[in-house]
């Protein structure tokens, strides 16, 4: 019938997927004592982004539809180092709700993580289906942190984003940290890496960033040496067109939240062939339910 197995159990009771239950289950795995800064939220945001950011608007390939990072070629791409941690975290939830596709689950996890860490509501709707390993996008679709403004534009314009959206998305680096054993870089971008805020932009504009003296890859550090910026982060203040948006978001957190929510939702939906009848939002967020 093409229906999920659960739909066939009791034909008199039509199967209705409970996305709110999945949201609750995701919210419940975020706090994790002893892991990084105490939250798995940041790495779930990174998984949602890396599974979506392979999209190429010309060929229509890549993007979140497919969850092809389950397979060897894509899981092994250098940019995805460490993301097995996030995929493994979601595996018990996939087992608990076998009717949800990995691609819907990974993107929903990113949206729920942003919301639960204090960020804006991210409009999310289901409709992604999982593809086989031969649908893996080629390596090199995700950005390289050691490069400059032209590279960032090439990568994000290929997905269909503009300069303002690039800067808005970049505010997600308020979250999480770099790991020497994953990317080679070290440290978080802000002092509140488990709270979604506009601190990334205030750090960029207010702090004196200097090139870090070490054997590792080129990165920038604050005077205390405990916060970091990647070369691709510094580009946002070195490039005048990017910088004006950085300054706006540093001053106006509400504007940042609204623009981030729009751009992140767009990112998670790139290349997804939604049925035109799918409502833009199917479920209240876990946060709203708990309120
Ligand atoms: Fe990241 N990003 N990102 N990123 N990223 C890292 C970590 C996170 C780039 C590079 C890196 C975005 C854009 C870019 C998050 C979310 C987003 C790391 C460190 C690198 C090197 C990985 C590690 O060592 O563990 C580059 C070059 C980007 C293009 C400018 C997005 C906008 C900011 C799209 C985005 O949402 C998150 C969250 C993390 C933290 C992960 C963690 O484990 O804590």
From TrEMBL:
GO terms for molecular function: cytochrome-c peroxidase activity; heme binding; L-ascorbate peroxidase activity; metal ion binding. Residues 83-291 form the Plant heme peroxidase family profile domain. Its main location: mitochondrion. It catalyses: 2 Fe(II)-[cytochrome c] + H2O2 + 2 H(+) = 2 Fe(III)-[cytochrome c] + 2 H2O. GO terms for cellular component: mitochondrial intermembrane space; mitochondrial matrix. The keyword Mitochondrion applies. It is found in: Mitochondrion intermembrane space; Mitochondrion matrix. Its EC number is 1.11.1.11, 1.11.1.5. Keywords: Heme, Iron, Metal-binding, Mitochondrion, Oxidoreductase, Peroxidase, Transit peptide. Belongs to the peroxidase family. Ascorbate peroxidase subfamily. Belongs to the peroxidase family. Cytochrome c peroxidase subfamily. Destroys radicals which are normally produced within the cells and which are toxic to biological systems. This is Cytochrome c peroxidase, mitochondrial. It comes from [Myrmecia] bisecta. The chain holds residues 70 to 360 of 360 of the full protein.
């Amino acid at each position: 019938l093409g229906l999920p197995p659960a739909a066939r159990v009791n034909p008199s009771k039509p199967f209705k997927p409970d996305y709110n239950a999945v949201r609750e289950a995701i919210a419940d795995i975020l706090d994790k004592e002893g892991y990084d800064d105490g939250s798995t939220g940041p790495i779930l945001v990174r998984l949602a982004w890396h599974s979506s950011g392979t999209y190429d608007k010309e060929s229509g390939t890549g993007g979140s539809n497919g969850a092809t990072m389950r397979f060897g070629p894509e899981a092994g791409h250098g940019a995805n180092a460490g993301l097995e941690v996030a995929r493994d975290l979601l595996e018990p939830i996939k087992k608990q709700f076998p009717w949800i596709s990995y691609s819907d689950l990974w993107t929903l996890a990113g949206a729920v993580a942003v919301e639960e860490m204090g960020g804006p509501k991210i409009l999310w709707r289901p409709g992604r289906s999982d593809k086989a390993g031969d649908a893996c996008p080629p390596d090199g679709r995700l950005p390289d942190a050691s490069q400059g403004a032209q590279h960032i534009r090439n990568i994000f314009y290929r997905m269909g984003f503009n300069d303002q959206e690039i800067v808005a998305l970049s505010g997600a680096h308020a979250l999480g940290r770099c790991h020497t054993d994953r990317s080679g870089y070290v440290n978080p971008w802000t002092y509140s890496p488990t709270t979604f805020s506009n601190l990334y932009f205030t750090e960029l504009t207010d702090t004196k960033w200097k090139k870090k003296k070490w054997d590792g890859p080129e990165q920038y550090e604050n005077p205390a040496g405990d916060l970091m910026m990647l070369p691709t982060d510094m580009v946002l203040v070195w490039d005048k067109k990017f910088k004006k948006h950085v300054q706006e978001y540093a001053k106006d957190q509400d504007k940042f939240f609204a623009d981030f929510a729009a751009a992140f939702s767009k990112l998670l939906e790139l290349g997804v062939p939604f049925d035109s009848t799918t409502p833009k939002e199917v479920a209240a967020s876990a946060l709203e339910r708990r309120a």
